[in-house]
Amino acid sequence: EKGCLDMLITDFDREIDKMSNNPGVHIFEKLISGMYMGRLAAEVLAALINQGIILKIQRDHKQSYRYYAPFHALYMLQTSHISEIELDTGRTFANTRNVLKKLGLDYATNADCAIISYTCRLISRLEITINS
After folding, report:
1. Which among 121, 120, 123 has a CA at the least distance from the CA of 32?
2. pTM here?
3. Which stretches make up the Hexokinase C-terminal domain (predicted)?
4. Which of 75, 123, 124, 128 has its Cα between 20 and 30 A from that of 28?
5. How far is CA 55 from the centre of its chain?
6. Tens-digit pLDDT profile for the chain (132 aa)?
């Protein structure tokens, strides 16, 4: 809370803090807690949508990404979803597709699934490394 972690905090972390029930408080816990892992993944994936990297099939580019349905669906990601995605093996991305379908995103391409799966694995690995 006194700024000693400022060099570690990303824009994604700042957004999570801002949207939390207690902005500006318990910053360290928000950086490492599994409770925030789904939201962190959602923030990163939303940025990838905004950059036109994933889930771009149905997007009208004249429309702001904030009004794009997949952007909002991703905010329903939970830590349990990240764990399910991590169990994927091979190139079918069955678990990733299952999670996306639960969120109402059933049209993801293989490339979308690969990026989403990789992103979730990185975030989970980071959380585990920090907590160890």
Report:
1. 123
2. 0.79
3. 3-125
4. 75
5. 13
6. 677 778 888 898 888 888 888 998 888 888 878 888 888 998 899 888 878 898 876 555 555 555 555 667 788 899 999 999 999 988 899 999 999 999 888 888 999 999 999 999 998 886 555 554
Residues 6+ apart with CB under 8 A from 124: 37, 82, 83, 86
Q: CA–CA separation, 92 vs 28, rounded Å?
A: 36
- Candidates 19, 13, 40, 31; CA nearest to 119 is 40
In which residue are the tokens 């399910």 written?
A: 84
Domain ranges of the chain: 1-33, 35-131
Contact in structure between 65 and 33 (CB atoms under 8 Å): no
